[in-house]
Design goal:
- With 465 residues, the chain is an all-alpha fold.
- It has three domains: 1-205, Growth Hormone, Chain: A (Up-down Bundle), CATH 1.20.1250; 208-258; 267-465, Up-down Bundle (Growth Hormone, Chain: A).
- It is built from 18 helices and no strands.
- It has helices spanning 14-36, 42-49, 57-81, 83-103, 107-122, 125-135, 139-170, 175-178, 180-194, 208-231, 236-256, 272-302, 307-313, 315-335, 338-356, 364-390, 395-424, 432-456.
- The longest helix has 32 residues, at 139-170.
- The chain is globular, with a radius of gyration of 21 Å.
Length: 465
């Protein structure tokens, strides 16, 4: 999300308002789906393109890094040039990129297509939410719509492996990209017919230096995590890379602290609740993405499960993330963010402990319980993280805070995928259990970090009046 003062759309009927929600939620479903749909197909993609296992993390992270980097700027562009126009542009870019991915003949082309998908996705997620908020001026109706919105995103992220597994089983890995085309075409027709144009009444300036630095910083950080195992963690190239990264982070903070309207305001990190929320967002999505990638590879490569079976096994995660997201929103409104954060941290920690038992051999009940616990934890985490990020801040800074939290979620996904690939890429089936143990420990530690954030969050902080 970005800082936006809503320019309400006049005169939309109830039916049309909810059709706008359905259209925008469908686009959001695509964005979340494409963040995870390829996880169950990475082995097939590698075999089909003759790619090294260590490079396959880029198939996921090329999408998430670009998506994370451009979220805030895309929202600002939509407020300036028109939300429907930018949303339509995002659909065209996303659809064209999906076709490029489906037709890719080698890994570099697929990675380029995934990065282009990330550009399109950045124009869909925050912009679609702004369209929905603009279309629903009634606070009660708007709250219901945002609840549906949150559940849809959780469902899409968790449903990716199931849909991907079904498509790969019925066709091949290219189908996970072909499937986007008809949805995008239908969305373009419906947007043109039903979605009103709107703009923000307060237009944020585009922070081009900050945007370029953020892309380089996030890209370099993820590249080091992915490529360091092959190059050697103590190799001169990797050590120099971390040195350059440290300098670039310092330059980014220095530049942003001097911008009148920074992309990410470093001053926000002086607010303890905001810093805790950002760390919590990263931790939740590190845990989520590592769980998804490592377990699907474990089931397929080490246990010999078919893609459809491996994807179907993640259904408890989809159930937990979808069902408990609105419950969390209700609790935040009634008691504040602390209780949902504590529940989320406890559940993710318990799920990580279940995964640790897999190092002793395959245990289907433990795996399914881990999926359910971690999915439910994710469902409980999102609402209080957003609430805590914007709590205690003046309204004019709430948009930047919310946008930073959204960026942190995608950054967590990218880091989790990179770490998972670092630990298990190319590992033989007989060594997978031992190689995966550090990953299960990291997931458990993410739950512990979220527990700490929840413990330090005031009980009634930012509960709506």
């Amino acid at each position: 999300m970005v800082e936006t003062i809503v320019d309400e759309a006049p005169g939309l009927s109830v039916r049309r308002r909810w059709l706008v929600l359905v259209i925008c939620a469908s686009a959001l479903f695509l964005v979340g789906l494409d963040a995870t749909i390829v996880t169950v197909g990475l082995s097939h993609i590698g075999a089909g393109l003759g790619a090294e296992p260590g490079s396959l993390s880029w198939v996921v992270d090329a999408y998430t890094v670009v998506f994370a980097s451009l979220l805030i700027t895309s929202g600002a562009l939509a407020d300036r040039f028109g939300r429907r126009r930018v949303f339509q542009t995002g659909l065209v870019v996303f659809g064209a990129a999906s076709l490029l991915c489906a037709a890719a003949g080698d890994l570099p082309v697929l990675i380029a297509g995934r990065a282009l998908q990330g550009i399109g996705a950045s124009m869909l997620s925050p912009v679609a939410l702004a369209i929905v908020v603009n279309a629903m001026p009634d606070p009660k109706e708007r709250a219901q719509a945002i609840g549906v919105w949150g559940a849809m995103f959780g469902l899409s992220m968790a449903a990716g492996p199931v849909v991907g597994g079904a498509l790969i089983t019925a066709f091949d890995w290219r189908a996970v990209f072909w499937v986007n085309a008809p949805v995008v075409l239908l969305a373009l027709v419906l947007v043109a017919a039903l979605v009103p144009e709107s703009r923000g009444r307060r237009i944020r300036r585009i922070d081009l230096p900050g945007q370029l630095l953020l892309i380089v910083v996030l890209g370099l950080a993820v590249a080091l995590l992915i490529e360091a195992p092959g190059l050697g963690w103590t190799s001169p190239v990797v050590l120099a890379g971390f040195g350059v990264l440290a300098v670039l982070v310092w330059v980014f903070v220095w530049v942003e602290s001097r911008r009148r309207e920074p992309l990410i305001d470093p001053g926000l990190f002086r607010v303890p609740s905001f810093t805790g929320a950002i760390l919590g967002a990263v931790a939740v999505f590190v845990a989520f993405s590592m769980t998804l990638l490592m377990t699907t590879l474990f089931l397929q490569d080490a246990q010999g499960w078919a893609p459809l079976a491996a994807g179907a096994a993640t259904l408890p995660m989809a159930f937990g993330a979808t069902v408990f997201a609105p419950v969390s929103g209700f609790l935040v409104g009634r008691t504040g963010p602390q209780l949902p954060l504590l529940l989320a941290g406890t559940l993710i920690l318990a799920g990580g402990l279940c995964l640790i038992t897999l190092t002793g051999g395959m245990n289907v009940p433990a795996l399914l319980m881990a999926y359910l616990l971690i999915g439910t934890g994710i469902g409980f985490a999102n609402a209080p993280i957003t609430n805590t990020a914007v709590s205690g801040l003046p309204p004019e800074r709430a948009g930047v805070a919310g946008g930073t939290a959204s960026t942190a979620r995608q950054l967590g996904t990218a880091i989790g995928i990179a770490l998972a690939g670092t630990l298990i890429a190319g590992v033989s089936p007989d060594r997978f259990a031992a190689a995966s143990l550090p990953g299960w420990i990291i997931i458990t530690a993410c739950g512990g970090l979220l527990l700490a954030v929840g413990t330090l969050t005031r009980h009634r902080e930012a509960a709506p009046a």
